[in-house]
Amino acid sequence: MEIGKRKPVHPGEVRRKDVITPLGLTVTEPAKCLGITRKTLSTLLNCKASLSPEMAVRIGKATKTSPESWLYMQAKLDIWTASKKSPKVKELKAVAG
User: How far apart are CA 31 and CA 9, in angstroms?
Assistant: First the structure.
């Protein structure tokens, strides 16, 4: 599998740039709508925390989007980040045979 050279966008950044900022919202307002603390949302929006499945469901319901699309963004970022660590592994067929 080929991993792209360009770092995928964090879902918190997408939420901040595409939803919160254009609507002129503070962090407090959407946090209340999502039923979470302002600190929790701020941490996500500032890309300091990963998006959890629970948060993906909350955001999906609040924005009428699919939770899967939010989780996919996070998974792409997680895989890209892990691939940059270049783990040393052997192919299974090399070990078996």
Answer: 21
